[in-house]
Amino acid sequence: MTRPLRVLAVDDVAPALAELVRLLRESPEVGDVARAGDPITALRLIQAGPLDVVFLDISMPGMNGLELASLLARMTDPPMIVFVTAYEEHAASAYGIGAVDYLLKPVSAERLAAALTRVRRFSAPDTAPAPAPVDALAAVPVELAGRTRFVRRDDVRFVEAQGDYVRLHTPTGAHLVRIPISRLEEHWQHAGFSRVHRSYLLAVPAVRELRSDLSGGLLAHTDVGDVPVSRRHARELREHLLEAATRGAFEPPDRRAAR
């Protein structure tokens, strides 16, 4: 017997969200239906448990559905995306991101059933291995002038602790985020980040060279600044650098600068 689909519905307009949830719950293809009234809540729900498909509105404040879908596409095992919108002009962008279907509001039960059939066709069989966990914090939300943007982990060269906050240093600037550096270390160490100082977390592939400062201490040079390396972490960093070089994890400087 085919397992019912696990679904998340996302829309910032409460009546539209309620109607979509109602239609989904009436479908025999669907099992659990979660709901979110904004993209940040949707991200939290996606990280909290496995989902098969997200029915996603496009026009939302802070971050639109296309931006959220692009972020989900970078996760280890993202859910499928079906856009539900009142605007036809975004269809090309939606399918370019990899959407399974594109529904225009108001959505009929028949059109929703067709979209669920497409989802089922693209979904893995029940005998497939369990999905890998979501790549937590692959992008970090940053609040800027009332809008939410996401800083990609791959763009961060190093992280600097500042009290209860951290400053993410990237080629496009530094971004202050309220999150403990220990939490970032926990989630980012598998992605090539190494704690090199009590106040610094360093992207190992971003290191251009190691330098000595005026007092004989060690500095890791990156294209956005130098990072102090404590004596207790110096040997470990050198081992990580050697391992990264062996794996070919370093990118040519011109490629990093072009991002």
From TrEMBL:
<dbReference type="InterPro" id="IPR011006">
    <property type="entry name" value="CheY-like_superfamily"/>
</dbReference>
<dbReference type="InterPro" id="IPR001789">
    <property type="entry name" value="Sig_transdc_resp-reg_receiver"/>
</dbReference>
<dbReference type="GO" id="GO:0003677">
    <property type="term" value="F:DNA binding"/>
</dbReference>
<dbReference type="InterPro" id="IPR007492">
    <property type="entry name" value="LytTR_DNA-bd_dom"/>
</dbReference>
<dbReference type="InterPro" id="IPR046947">
    <property type="entry name" value="LytR-like"/>
</dbReference>
<keyword id="KW-0597">Phosphoprotein</keyword>
<feature type="domain" description="Response regulatory">
    <location>
        <begin position="6"/>
        <end position="120"/>
    </location>
</feature>
<dbReference type="GO" id="GO:0000156">
    <property type="term" value="F:phosphorelay response regulator activity"/>
</dbReference>
<dbReference type="Pfam" id="PF00072">
    <property type="entry name" value="Response_reg"/>
</dbReference>
<dbReference type="Pfam" id="PF04397">
    <property type="entry name" value="LytTR"/>
</dbReference>
<feature type="modified residue" description="4-aspartylphosphate">
    <location>
        <position position="57"/>
    </location>
</feature>
<protein>
    <submittedName>
        <fullName>LytTR family two component transcriptional regulator</fullName>
    </submittedName>
</protein>
<feature type="domain" description="HTH LytTR-type">
    <location>
        <begin position="140"/>
        <end position="243"/>
    </location>
</feature>
